[in-house]
Amino acid sequence: MNEITNDKAKCELALEALKSLEDPEIGLNVVDLGLIYQIDFDENEKKIYCSHSLTTQFCPMGESISSGILNALEHAFAEYNVEVKVTFDPPWNSEKISEEGREFLNS
Amino acid sequence: MFPGITNNGLAKNTSYKVVLPFYVYAGLSFLVATIFLLFSSSAFLQHYFHPRTLAITHLMALGWGTMMILGASHQLVPVLIEGKLYSNVLAHLSFGFSGIGIPLLVYSFCEFDFGWPAQSGAILINLSVLFYLINMGISMSKSKVESVHAIFVFTATLWLFITTLVGLFLIYNFTYTILSQDSLSYLPLHAHLGIIGWFLLLVIGVGSRLILLFLISKYNNTKLLWWIYSLINIALISFIIIFLYIKINWLYLIPLIPLAASLVMFGYYCYQSYRNRIRKKVDEQVRLSLLSVLMMALPLMFLLIIILFLIFSKSNYHLIITYGFAIFFGWITAIIFGMTFKTLPFIVWNKVYHHKAGLGKTPNPKELFSGKMFYWMSISYLAGFVLFVTGVLVSKEFIIQIAGILLLITAVLYNSNLWKTLMHKPATHE
Q1: Topology (CATH) of A3-95
Q2: Chain-chain contact of B279 with A84 (C-beta, under 8 angstroms)
Q3: The whole model's pTM is what?
Q4: Which domains are seen in chain B, by residue range?
Q5: CB distance B2–A83 less than 8 Å?
Q6: Over the stretch B288-297, which tens digit does the pLDDT of each residue have?
Q7: What interface predicted TM-score (ipTM) does this complex get?
Q8: What is the DSSP string of B300-356?
Q9: Which of B7, B213, B354 is the mutation pick for testing A, counting most A CBs within 10 A?
Protein backbone atom coordinates (compact mmCIF):
# COMPACT_ATOMS: atom_id res chain seq x y z
CA MET A 1 0.00 0.00 0.00
CA ASN A 2 1.24 3.46 -0.83
CA GLU A 3 1.25 5.60 2.27
CA ILE A 4 0.28 9.14 1.39
CA THR A 5 0.86 11.98 3.82
CA ASN A 6 0.37 15.77 3.81
CA ASP A 7 -1.65 17.42 1.09
CA LYS A 8 -3.79 14.64 -0.30
CA ALA A 9 -4.62 16.37 -3.56
CA LYS A 10 -0.96 17.12 -4.30
CA CYS A 11 0.06 13.60 -3.39
CA GLU A 12 -2.54 12.28 -5.83
CA LEU A 13 -1.05 14.50 -8.52
CA ALA A 14 2.44 13.26 -7.66
CA LEU A 15 1.32 9.62 -7.87
CA GLU A 16 -0.34 10.36 -11.19
CA ALA A 17 2.94 11.82 -12.46
CA LEU A 18 4.83 8.77 -11.24
CA LYS A 19 2.44 6.45 -13.05
CA SER A 20 4.17 7.47 -16.26
CA LEU A 21 7.34 5.79 -15.00
CA GLU A 22 7.60 2.07 -15.60
CA ASP A 23 9.92 -0.50 -14.11
CA PRO A 24 11.77 -1.34 -17.35
CA GLU A 25 11.97 -5.06 -16.60
CA ILE A 26 8.41 -5.65 -15.46
CA GLY A 27 6.70 -3.05 -17.63
CA LEU A 28 4.44 -1.96 -14.76
CA ASN A 29 4.46 1.60 -13.42
CA VAL A 30 6.28 2.19 -10.14
CA VAL A 31 3.10 3.23 -8.29
CA ASP A 32 1.09 0.07 -9.05
CA LEU A 33 4.21 -1.99 -8.47
CA GLY A 34 4.14 -0.62 -4.91
CA LEU A 35 7.59 0.93 -4.99
CA ILE A 36 6.48 4.37 -3.76
CA TYR A 37 6.39 4.32 0.05
CA GLN A 38 5.90 7.95 1.00
CA ILE A 39 5.49 11.41 -0.49
CA ASP A 40 5.66 14.52 1.71
CA PHE A 41 5.20 18.10 0.63
CA ASP A 42 6.97 20.78 2.68
CA GLU A 43 5.23 24.01 1.74
CA ASN A 44 7.58 26.23 3.76
CA GLU A 45 10.72 24.87 2.17
CA LYS A 46 9.02 24.19 -1.17
CA LYS A 47 10.35 20.66 -1.06
CA ILE A 48 9.03 17.24 -1.96
CA TYR A 49 10.39 14.23 -0.11
CA CYS A 50 9.77 10.92 -1.79
CA SER A 51 10.88 7.58 -0.40
CA HIS A 52 10.69 4.52 -2.58
CA SER A 53 11.92 0.96 -2.64
CA LEU A 54 13.18 -1.45 -5.28
CA THR A 55 12.11 -5.03 -5.97
CA THR A 56 15.51 -6.17 -4.70
CA GLN A 57 18.52 -4.49 -3.12
CA PHE A 58 21.29 -3.83 -5.65
CA CYS A 59 18.65 -3.99 -8.37
CA PRO A 60 20.58 -3.28 -11.58
CA MET A 61 17.82 -0.87 -12.64
CA GLY A 62 17.81 0.94 -9.26
CA GLU A 63 19.65 4.04 -10.43
CA SER A 64 17.32 4.46 -13.41
CA ILE A 65 14.19 4.05 -11.30
CA SER A 66 15.44 6.49 -8.68
CA SER A 67 16.45 9.16 -11.17
CA GLY A 68 13.22 8.52 -13.08
CA ILE A 69 11.20 9.31 -9.93
CA LEU A 70 13.26 12.45 -9.37
CA ASN A 71 12.82 13.58 -12.98
CA ALA A 72 9.08 12.86 -13.06
CA LEU A 73 8.41 14.80 -9.83
CA GLU A 74 10.64 17.72 -10.84
CA HIS A 75 8.82 17.86 -14.16
CA ALA A 76 5.36 17.78 -12.55
CA PHE A 77 6.18 20.24 -9.73
CA ALA A 78 8.66 22.67 -11.25
CA GLU A 79 8.40 25.09 -8.28
CA TYR A 80 9.55 22.44 -5.76
CA ASN A 81 12.93 20.91 -4.99
CA VAL A 82 12.70 17.13 -4.95
CA GLU A 83 14.61 14.79 -2.67
CA VAL A 84 14.40 11.07 -3.35
CA LYS A 85 15.45 8.38 -0.92
CA VAL A 86 15.65 4.62 -1.43
CA THR A 87 14.53 2.50 1.50
CA PHE A 88 14.24 -1.19 2.22
CA ASP A 89 12.46 -0.68 5.50
CA PRO A 90 10.25 -2.59 4.99
CA PRO A 91 11.63 -4.55 2.05
CA TRP A 92 9.43 -4.69 -1.02
CA ASN A 93 7.44 -7.86 -1.64
CA SER A 94 4.80 -8.88 -4.14
CA GLU A 95 1.98 -8.08 -1.65
CA LYS A 96 2.65 -4.40 -2.34
CA ILE A 97 1.47 -4.67 -5.95
CA SER A 98 -1.90 -2.93 -6.39
CA GLU A 99 -5.02 -4.64 -7.77
CA GLU A 100 -4.54 -2.78 -11.06
CA GLY A 101 -0.93 -3.96 -11.10
CA ARG A 102 -1.99 -7.56 -10.55
CA GLU A 103 -4.50 -7.32 -13.35
CA PHE A 104 -1.77 -5.97 -15.65
CA LEU A 105 0.61 -8.79 -14.72
CA ASN A 106 -2.15 -11.37 -15.16
CA SER A 107 -2.99 -10.22 -18.66
CA MET B 1 11.09 13.58 5.78
CA PHE B 2 14.79 13.05 5.51
CA PRO B 3 16.55 16.43 5.66
CA GLY B 4 20.32 16.39 5.72
CA ILE B 5 20.74 13.13 3.90
CA THR B 6 23.94 12.94 1.89
CA ASN B 7 23.22 9.66 0.23
CA ASN B 8 19.84 8.75 -1.17
CA GLY B 9 20.25 5.16 0.02
CA LEU B 10 20.84 3.81 -3.46
CA ALA B 11 23.42 1.05 -3.62
CA LYS B 12 26.13 1.39 -6.24
CA ASN B 13 25.93 -1.33 -8.85
CA THR B 14 28.77 -2.92 -10.78
CA SER B 15 29.74 -0.74 -13.74
CA TYR B 16 28.83 -1.88 -17.24
CA LYS B 17 32.52 -1.39 -18.09
CA VAL B 18 33.29 -4.43 -15.95
CA VAL B 19 30.56 -6.64 -17.37
CA LEU B 20 30.33 -5.96 -21.10
CA PRO B 21 33.84 -7.10 -22.16
CA PHE B 22 33.01 -10.57 -20.83
CA TYR B 23 29.84 -10.69 -22.95
CA VAL B 24 31.69 -9.66 -26.11
CA TYR B 25 34.48 -12.14 -25.49
CA ALA B 26 32.02 -14.96 -24.86
CA GLY B 27 30.08 -14.20 -28.05
CA LEU B 28 33.25 -14.26 -30.15
CA SER B 29 34.38 -17.51 -28.51
CA PHE B 30 31.07 -19.12 -29.42
CA LEU B 31 31.47 -17.95 -33.02
CA VAL B 32 35.01 -19.33 -33.27
CA ALA B 33 33.89 -22.62 -31.65
CA THR B 34 31.14 -23.09 -34.25
CA ILE B 35 33.60 -22.32 -37.10
CA PHE B 36 35.97 -24.96 -35.68
CA LEU B 37 33.05 -27.35 -35.31
CA LEU B 38 32.00 -26.92 -38.93
CA PHE B 39 35.51 -27.64 -40.21
CA SER B 40 36.20 -30.50 -37.79
CA SER B 41 33.19 -32.72 -38.45
CA SER B 42 35.28 -35.88 -38.81
CA ALA B 43 36.85 -35.35 -35.37
CA PHE B 44 33.50 -36.04 -33.71
CA LEU B 45 33.43 -39.57 -35.04
CA GLN B 46 36.76 -40.38 -33.39
CA HIS B 47 38.08 -40.58 -29.82
CA TYR B 48 37.33 -37.48 -27.74
CA PHE B 49 41.06 -37.03 -27.06
CA HIS B 50 41.40 -35.29 -30.41
CA PRO B 51 43.12 -31.88 -30.90
CA ARG B 52 40.04 -30.24 -32.41
CA THR B 53 37.60 -31.76 -29.93
CA LEU B 54 39.77 -30.59 -27.03
CA ALA B 55 40.11 -27.12 -28.57
CA ILE B 56 36.35 -26.75 -29.14
CA THR B 57 35.52 -28.11 -25.68
CA HIS B 58 37.81 -25.58 -23.99
CA LEU B 59 36.56 -22.75 -26.17
CA MET B 60 33.02 -23.62 -25.16
CA ALA B 61 33.73 -24.32 -21.48
CA LEU B 62 36.08 -21.40 -20.83
CA GLY B 63 35.64 -18.84 -23.62
CA TRP B 64 31.87 -19.16 -23.91
CA GLY B 65 30.39 -20.59 -20.70
CA THR B 66 32.84 -19.40 -18.07
CA MET B 67 33.49 -15.93 -19.52
CA MET B 68 29.76 -15.27 -19.84
CA ILE B 69 29.10 -16.48 -16.30
CA LEU B 70 32.01 -14.46 -14.89
CA GLY B 71 30.67 -11.33 -16.60
CA ALA B 72 27.06 -11.82 -15.55
CA SER B 73 27.98 -12.82 -12.01
CA HIS B 74 29.92 -9.60 -11.42
CA GLN B 75 26.56 -7.90 -11.96
CA LEU B 76 24.30 -10.47 -10.30
CA VAL B 77 26.26 -11.51 -7.20
CA PRO B 78 25.69 -8.07 -5.58
CA VAL B 79 21.94 -8.75 -6.01
CA LEU B 80 22.31 -12.16 -4.34
CA ILE B 81 24.42 -10.97 -1.42
CA GLU B 82 22.78 -7.54 -1.16
CA GLY B 83 26.24 -6.05 -1.04
CA LYS B 84 28.69 -4.30 -3.32
CA LEU B 85 31.25 -6.02 -5.54
CA TYR B 86 34.56 -5.70 -3.67
CA SER B 87 36.82 -4.70 -6.55
CA ASN B 88 36.39 -3.65 -10.17
CA VAL B 89 40.17 -3.91 -10.63
CA LEU B 90 40.14 -7.60 -9.72
CA ALA B 91 37.26 -8.10 -12.17
CA HIS B 92 39.27 -6.39 -14.96
CA LEU B 93 42.33 -8.48 -14.09
CA SER B 94 40.24 -11.62 -14.15
CA PHE B 95 39.00 -10.70 -17.63
CA GLY B 96 42.47 -9.79 -18.93
CA PHE B 97 44.23 -12.92 -17.68
CA SER B 98 41.55 -15.28 -19.00
CA GLY B 99 41.25 -13.26 -22.18
CA ILE B 100 44.91 -13.98 -22.99
CA GLY B 101 45.10 -17.42 -21.41
CA ILE B 102 42.18 -19.02 -23.27
CA PRO B 103 43.46 -18.45 -26.85
CA LEU B 104 46.91 -19.71 -25.81
CA LEU B 105 45.39 -22.88 -24.43
CA VAL B 106 43.08 -23.40 -27.42
CA TYR B 107 45.98 -22.82 -29.84
CA SER B 108 48.07 -25.42 -28.05
CA PHE B 109 45.23 -27.96 -28.22
CA CYS B 110 44.84 -27.33 -31.97
CA GLU B 111 48.57 -27.86 -32.48
CA PHE B 112 48.71 -30.62 -29.88
CA ASP B 113 51.73 -28.86 -28.43
CA PHE B 114 51.77 -28.72 -24.65
CA GLY B 115 54.86 -26.55 -24.38
CA TRP B 116 54.97 -22.89 -23.31
CA PRO B 117 51.69 -21.68 -24.90
CA ALA B 118 49.67 -24.32 -23.07
CA GLN B 119 51.59 -23.88 -19.83
CA SER B 120 51.42 -20.09 -19.79
CA GLY B 121 47.77 -20.18 -20.91
CA ALA B 122 46.87 -22.50 -18.05
CA ILE B 123 48.77 -20.35 -15.53
CA LEU B 124 46.98 -17.20 -16.72
CA ILE B 125 43.58 -18.88 -16.50
CA ASN B 126 44.36 -20.08 -12.96
CA LEU B 127 45.37 -16.57 -11.92
CA SER B 128 42.17 -15.21 -13.46
CA VAL B 129 40.05 -17.65 -11.48
CA LEU B 130 42.01 -16.85 -8.34
CA PHE B 131 41.26 -13.12 -8.76
CA TYR B 132 37.60 -13.94 -9.25
CA LEU B 133 37.59 -16.19 -6.17
CA ILE B 134 39.19 -13.46 -4.03
CA ASN B 135 36.74 -10.87 -5.37
CA MET B 136 33.72 -13.05 -4.64
CA GLY B 137 35.06 -14.16 -1.24
CA ILE B 138 35.71 -10.62 0.03
CA SER B 139 32.43 -9.29 -1.44
CA MET B 140 30.50 -12.03 0.35
CA SER B 141 32.40 -11.68 3.62
CA LYS B 142 31.54 -7.95 3.69
CA SER B 143 27.86 -8.63 3.08
CA LYS B 144 25.55 -8.69 6.09
CA VAL B 145 23.14 -11.10 4.42
CA GLU B 146 23.55 -14.85 4.65
CA SER B 147 22.31 -16.21 1.36
CA VAL B 148 22.11 -19.79 0.17
CA HIS B 149 22.54 -18.48 -3.38
CA ALA B 150 25.85 -16.84 -2.44
CA ILE B 151 27.07 -20.09 -0.86
CA PHE B 152 26.27 -21.86 -4.14
CA VAL B 153 28.29 -19.27 -6.07
CA PHE B 154 31.27 -19.33 -3.73
CA THR B 155 31.41 -23.14 -3.60
CA ALA B 156 31.09 -23.26 -7.39
CA THR B 157 34.03 -20.86 -7.69
CA LEU B 158 36.11 -23.05 -5.37
CA TRP B 159 35.35 -26.05 -7.61
CA LEU B 160 36.26 -23.95 -10.66
CA PHE B 161 39.62 -23.16 -9.11
CA ILE B 162 40.19 -26.86 -8.35
CA THR B 163 39.19 -27.67 -11.96
CA THR B 164 41.63 -25.21 -13.50
CA LEU B 165 44.35 -26.29 -11.05
CA VAL B 166 43.88 -29.92 -12.09
CA GLY B 167 43.96 -28.70 -15.71
CA LEU B 168 47.29 -26.99 -15.05
CA PHE B 169 48.71 -30.23 -13.61
CA LEU B 170 47.43 -32.16 -16.63
CA ILE B 171 49.16 -29.74 -19.02
CA TYR B 172 52.48 -30.04 -17.14
CA ASN B 173 52.03 -33.79 -16.92
CA PHE B 174 52.41 -33.98 -20.71
CA THR B 175 55.97 -32.66 -20.46
CA TYR B 176 57.06 -33.64 -16.95
CA THR B 177 55.79 -36.77 -15.23
CA ILE B 178 54.19 -35.31 -12.15
CA LEU B 179 51.10 -37.54 -11.89
CA SER B 180 50.98 -41.32 -11.44
CA GLN B 181 49.12 -41.81 -14.76
CA ASP B 182 48.99 -40.07 -18.14
CA SER B 183 46.87 -36.92 -18.50
CA LEU B 184 44.24 -38.67 -20.62
CA SER B 185 43.31 -40.87 -17.64
CA TYR B 186 42.42 -37.81 -15.57
CA LEU B 187 40.17 -36.15 -18.16
CA PRO B 188 36.90 -37.49 -16.66
CA LEU B 189 37.91 -36.05 -13.28
CA HIS B 190 38.88 -32.66 -14.75
CA ALA B 191 35.69 -32.51 -16.83
CA HIS B 192 33.28 -33.40 -14.02
CA LEU B 193 34.87 -31.06 -11.52
CA GLY B 194 34.07 -28.31 -14.00
CA ILE B 195 30.67 -29.51 -15.19
CA ILE B 196 29.17 -30.46 -11.82
CA GLY B 197 31.23 -28.36 -9.41
CA TRP B 198 31.36 -25.15 -11.40
CA PHE B 199 28.59 -24.99 -13.98
CA LEU B 200 25.84 -26.95 -12.25
CA LEU B 201 26.27 -25.41 -8.79
CA LEU B 202 26.55 -21.91 -10.20
CA VAL B 203 23.62 -22.18 -12.59
CA ILE B 204 21.35 -23.53 -9.84
CA GLY B 205 22.60 -21.01 -7.27
CA VAL B 206 22.04 -17.97 -9.46
CA GLY B 207 19.11 -19.38 -11.45
CA SER B 208 17.08 -20.21 -8.35
CA ARG B 209 17.14 -16.53 -7.36
CA LEU B 210 16.68 -15.04 -10.83
CA ILE B 211 13.73 -17.22 -11.70
CA LEU B 212 11.82 -15.83 -8.68
CA LEU B 213 12.69 -12.26 -9.66
CA PHE B 214 11.83 -12.61 -13.34
CA LEU B 215 8.53 -14.40 -12.72
CA ILE B 216 7.71 -12.34 -9.59
CA SER B 217 7.03 -15.62 -7.88
CA LYS B 218 5.76 -16.01 -4.34
CA TYR B 219 7.50 -19.38 -4.05
CA ASN B 220 10.49 -19.55 -1.74
CA ASN B 221 12.04 -22.76 -0.48
CA THR B 222 15.50 -22.26 1.00
CA LYS B 223 15.42 -25.68 2.65
CA LEU B 224 15.02 -27.39 -0.72
CA LEU B 225 17.95 -25.36 -2.10
CA TRP B 226 20.16 -26.53 0.79
CA TRP B 227 19.19 -30.13 -0.03
CA ILE B 228 20.12 -29.57 -3.68
CA TYR B 229 23.42 -27.98 -2.64
CA SER B 230 24.29 -30.89 -0.36
CA LEU B 231 23.32 -33.58 -2.88
CA ILE B 232 25.40 -32.04 -5.68
CA ASN B 233 28.47 -31.80 -3.43
CA ILE B 234 27.94 -35.34 -2.12
CA ALA B 235 27.70 -36.58 -5.72
CA LEU B 236 30.90 -34.82 -6.75
CA ILE B 237 32.94 -35.80 -3.70
CA SER B 238 31.84 -39.45 -3.94
CA PHE B 239 32.76 -39.41 -7.65
CA ILE B 240 36.25 -38.07 -6.84
CA ILE B 241 36.79 -40.76 -4.17
CA ILE B 242 35.64 -43.57 -6.50
CA PHE B 243 37.71 -42.19 -9.40
CA LEU B 244 40.94 -41.76 -7.45
CA TYR B 245 40.86 -44.57 -4.93
CA ILE B 246 38.33 -47.30 -5.72
CA LYS B 247 38.14 -47.43 -9.55
CA ILE B 248 35.29 -49.92 -9.82
CA ASN B 249 33.07 -48.99 -12.77
CA TRP B 250 29.67 -49.97 -11.37
CA LEU B 251 30.28 -47.78 -8.32
CA TYR B 252 29.93 -44.70 -10.55
CA LEU B 253 26.19 -45.30 -10.28
CA ILE B 254 26.43 -44.14 -6.64
CA PRO B 255 27.19 -40.45 -7.37
CA LEU B 256 24.59 -40.53 -10.13
CA ILE B 257 21.81 -41.08 -7.57
CA PRO B 258 22.27 -37.86 -5.52
CA LEU B 259 22.98 -35.99 -8.75
CA ALA B 260 19.74 -37.15 -10.37
CA ALA B 261 17.85 -36.40 -7.13
CA SER B 262 19.24 -32.84 -7.06
CA LEU B 263 18.17 -32.23 -10.66
CA VAL B 264 14.66 -33.54 -9.98
CA MET B 265 14.47 -31.26 -6.93
CA PHE B 266 15.64 -28.26 -8.97
CA GLY B 267 13.07 -29.11 -11.64
CA TYR B 268 10.43 -29.17 -8.90
CA TYR B 269 11.71 -25.82 -7.56
CA CYS B 270 11.41 -24.26 -11.04
CA TYR B 271 7.96 -25.75 -11.54
CA GLN B 272 6.70 -24.39 -8.20
CA SER B 273 8.24 -20.97 -8.94
CA TYR B 274 6.44 -20.98 -12.28
CA ARG B 275 3.14 -22.11 -10.76
CA ASN B 276 3.24 -19.44 -8.05
CA ARG B 277 4.21 -16.60 -10.34
CA ILE B 278 2.33 -13.31 -10.29
CA ARG B 279 3.57 -12.34 -13.74
CA LYS B 280 1.60 -14.59 -16.07
CA LYS B 281 3.23 -13.60 -19.34
CA VAL B 282 6.63 -15.25 -19.64
CA ASP B 283 8.99 -13.84 -22.27
CA GLU B 284 10.98 -15.90 -24.79
CA GLN B 285 14.27 -15.48 -22.93
CA VAL B 286 12.91 -16.87 -19.66
CA ARG B 287 11.16 -19.66 -21.59
CA LEU B 288 14.47 -20.66 -23.19
CA SER B 289 16.14 -20.61 -19.77
CA LEU B 290 13.38 -22.84 -18.36
CA LEU B 291 13.84 -25.16 -21.34
CA SER B 292 17.52 -25.42 -20.43
CA VAL B 293 16.47 -26.86 -17.05
CA LEU B 294 14.76 -29.69 -18.93
CA MET B 295 17.86 -30.03 -21.11
CA MET B 296 19.83 -30.98 -17.99
CA ALA B 297 18.09 -34.36 -18.12
CA LEU B 298 19.64 -35.22 -21.49
CA PRO B 299 23.33 -35.35 -20.41
CA LEU B 300 22.26 -37.19 -17.27
CA MET B 301 20.64 -39.85 -19.41
CA PHE B 302 23.78 -40.14 -21.58
CA LEU B 303 25.90 -40.36 -18.43
CA LEU B 304 23.82 -43.28 -17.18
CA ILE B 305 24.23 -45.11 -20.51
CA ILE B 306 27.99 -44.40 -20.54
CA ILE B 307 28.33 -45.88 -17.04
CA LEU B 308 26.29 -48.94 -18.07
CA PHE B 309 28.64 -49.40 -21.06
CA LEU B 310 31.63 -49.09 -18.71
CA ILE B 311 30.19 -51.74 -16.40
CA PHE B 312 30.23 -54.13 -19.34
CA SER B 313 33.82 -53.05 -20.09
CA LYS B 314 32.94 -51.18 -23.24
CA SER B 315 33.71 -47.57 -24.01
CA ASN B 316 31.57 -45.76 -26.54
CA TYR B 317 33.29 -42.60 -27.84
CA HIS B 318 30.19 -41.50 -29.70
CA LEU B 319 28.18 -41.47 -26.50
CA ILE B 320 30.90 -39.58 -24.62
CA ILE B 321 31.10 -36.93 -27.36
CA THR B 322 27.30 -36.63 -27.40
CA TYR B 323 27.33 -36.30 -23.61
CA GLY B 324 29.86 -33.44 -23.74
CA PHE B 325 28.02 -31.80 -26.63
CA ALA B 326 24.69 -32.00 -24.79
CA ILE B 327 26.29 -30.15 -21.88
CA PHE B 328 28.23 -27.39 -23.63
CA PHE B 329 26.19 -26.84 -26.79
CA GLY B 330 22.94 -27.91 -25.14
CA TRP B 331 22.30 -27.03 -21.54
CA ILE B 332 24.90 -24.26 -21.03
CA THR B 333 24.31 -22.64 -24.43
CA ALA B 334 20.54 -22.55 -23.95
CA ILE B 335 20.94 -20.84 -20.57
CA ILE B 336 23.35 -18.31 -22.00
CA PHE B 337 21.06 -17.51 -24.92
CA GLY B 338 18.17 -16.85 -22.56
CA MET B 339 20.15 -14.93 -19.99
CA THR B 340 22.13 -12.79 -22.46
CA PHE B 341 19.00 -11.18 -23.84
CA LYS B 342 17.44 -11.03 -20.41
CA THR B 343 20.36 -9.14 -18.83
CA LEU B 344 22.31 -7.36 -21.61
CA PRO B 345 19.50 -5.07 -22.85
CA PHE B 346 19.03 -3.83 -19.28
CA ILE B 347 22.72 -3.16 -18.78
CA VAL B 348 22.84 -1.18 -22.05
CA TRP B 349 19.50 0.53 -21.33
CA ASN B 350 20.82 1.61 -17.93
CA LYS B 351 23.98 2.98 -19.54
CA VAL B 352 22.10 4.94 -22.22
CA TYR B 353 18.87 6.02 -20.52
CA HIS B 354 19.29 6.13 -16.76
CA HIS B 355 19.45 9.96 -16.71
CA LYS B 356 16.50 10.20 -19.10
CA ALA B 357 14.08 8.01 -17.15
CA GLY B 358 10.91 9.90 -16.18
CA LEU B 359 11.50 12.61 -18.77
CA GLY B 360 9.39 11.15 -21.54
CA LYS B 361 8.96 7.86 -23.28
CA THR B 362 12.12 5.82 -23.66
CA PRO B 363 12.36 2.53 -25.55
CA ASN B 364 11.67 -0.62 -23.58
CA PRO B 365 14.90 -2.60 -22.97
CA LYS B 366 13.36 -5.43 -24.99
CA GLU B 367 13.40 -3.14 -28.03
CA LEU B 368 17.20 -2.94 -27.91
CA PHE B 369 17.60 -6.36 -29.52
CA SER B 370 15.77 -7.95 -32.40
CA GLY B 371 13.07 -10.41 -31.32
CA LYS B 372 12.92 -11.78 -34.83
CA MET B 373 16.65 -12.49 -34.88
CA PHE B 374 16.32 -14.12 -31.45
CA TYR B 375 13.50 -16.33 -32.76
CA TRP B 376 15.46 -17.51 -35.82
CA MET B 377 18.55 -18.01 -33.69
CA SER B 378 16.53 -20.30 -31.38
CA ILE B 379 15.15 -22.28 -34.34
CA SER B 380 18.54 -22.80 -36.03
CA TYR B 381 20.06 -23.65 -32.65
CA LEU B 382 17.50 -26.32 -31.78
CA ALA B 383 17.69 -27.82 -35.29
CA GLY B 384 21.52 -27.77 -35.23
CA PHE B 385 21.59 -29.33 -31.78
CA VAL B 386 19.24 -32.19 -32.67
CA LEU B 387 21.03 -32.87 -35.98
CA PHE B 388 24.47 -32.91 -34.37
CA VAL B 389 23.42 -35.41 -31.71
CA THR B 390 21.78 -37.55 -34.41
CA GLY B 391 24.83 -37.30 -36.68
CA VAL B 392 27.24 -38.47 -33.97
CA LEU B 393 24.98 -41.28 -32.74
CA VAL B 394 24.39 -42.67 -36.26
CA SER B 395 28.00 -41.87 -37.34
CA LYS B 396 27.06 -39.81 -40.39
CA GLU B 397 29.50 -37.00 -41.09
CA PHE B 398 27.26 -35.14 -43.52
CA ILE B 399 24.58 -34.76 -40.81
CA ILE B 400 27.24 -33.31 -38.49
CA GLN B 401 28.24 -30.90 -41.28
CA ILE B 402 24.65 -29.70 -41.74
CA ALA B 403 24.41 -29.29 -37.97
CA GLY B 404 27.69 -27.34 -38.07
CA ILE B 405 26.25 -24.93 -40.64
CA LEU B 406 23.11 -24.41 -38.53
CA LEU B 407 25.14 -23.82 -35.39
CA LEU B 408 27.36 -21.35 -37.24
CA ILE B 409 24.22 -19.49 -38.37
CA THR B 410 23.11 -19.53 -34.72
CA ALA B 411 26.41 -18.00 -33.61
CA VAL B 412 26.26 -15.32 -36.33
CA LEU B 413 22.69 -14.39 -35.34
CA TYR B 414 23.63 -14.37 -31.67
CA ASN B 415 26.63 -12.10 -32.23
CA SER B 416 24.67 -9.81 -34.57
CA ASN B 417 21.98 -9.35 -31.96
CA LEU B 418 24.59 -8.88 -29.24
CA TRP B 419 26.27 -6.10 -31.23
CA LYS B 420 22.93 -4.55 -32.18
CA THR B 421 22.22 -4.22 -28.45
CA LEU B 422 25.69 -2.96 -27.57
CA MET B 423 25.67 -0.34 -30.33
CA HIS B 424 22.28 1.06 -29.36
CA LYS B 425 22.21 4.85 -29.61
CA PRO B 426 19.94 6.97 -27.41
CA ALA B 427 16.54 7.70 -28.89
CA THR B 428 13.51 9.24 -27.25
CA HIS B 429 10.11 8.20 -28.50
CA GLU B 430 7.55 10.93 -28.91
Answers
A1: GMP Synthetase; Chain A, domain 3 (3.30.300)
A2: no
A3: 0.90
A4: 16-316 (1.20.210.10)
A5: yes
A6: 888 888 888 8
A7: 0.79
A8: HHHHHHHHHHHHTT---HHHHHHHHHIIIIIIIHHHHHHHHHHHHHHHHHHHHHTTT
A9: B354
